[in-house]
Every structure is written in C-alpha cells, then in structure tokens.
Amino acid sequence: RIFPAIDINRSGTRKEDLLLSAEVLNRVWILRKLLSSLNPADAMEFLVDKLKHTKTNEEFIDSMNR
Fold first, then answer.
1. Among positive and negative, which fits the CA dihedral 24, 13, 2, 46?
2. pTM assigned to the model
3. Residue range 13-19: average pLDDT?
4. How far is CA 50 from CA 14, 17, 27, 39, in A?
5. Does the residue 3 lie in any domain?
6. How many folded domains does the chain comprise?
7. Domain for residue 23, yes or no?
8. DSSP character for 65?
9. DSSP-assigned letters across all residues of 29-58
10. Rounded Cα distance, 41 and 55, in Å
11. Across residues 5-26, what is the average pLDDT?
12. Tens-digit pLDDT profile for residues 40-51
C-alpha cells in the first residue's frame, strides 16, 4: 500500500519539457502510456516494483532500455 495515494495518470507538470532532456521526456511519455493502460492499483504496483531495483531516477530511466 502506498501512502499518500498517488494518481499516476494525473501526475506531472505542464513545463516538464523545460526540466527534462528530449530523450528522458520521451521515456517518461512511454512509461505514462504503459501505466495508463493498467488499472491504478496495478500501475502503482508495477512502478513501485521497478523502482525498487534502481537507486536513482537516472538508473530507473536507463533501465527502461532493458
């Protein structure tokens, strides 16, 4: 269980293109598309499971290539 509750589909910022490189932004969009196809509980479980195996956000994004 995650507290506080997070709505993955509604998270983000309007100006993320100013914060992230084009490559990272593209991966974020791919991840969001994947997560939006799952029900919220499954999406969160998937994301938390993947994050457990990395130490940094950069490592997590890089792991999406594997």
1. negative
2. 0.74
3. 85
4. 25, 24, 14, 17
5. no
6. 1
7. yes
8. T
9. HHHHHHHHTS-HHHHHHHHHHHHHT-SSHH
10. 23
11. 82
12. 888 888 998 999
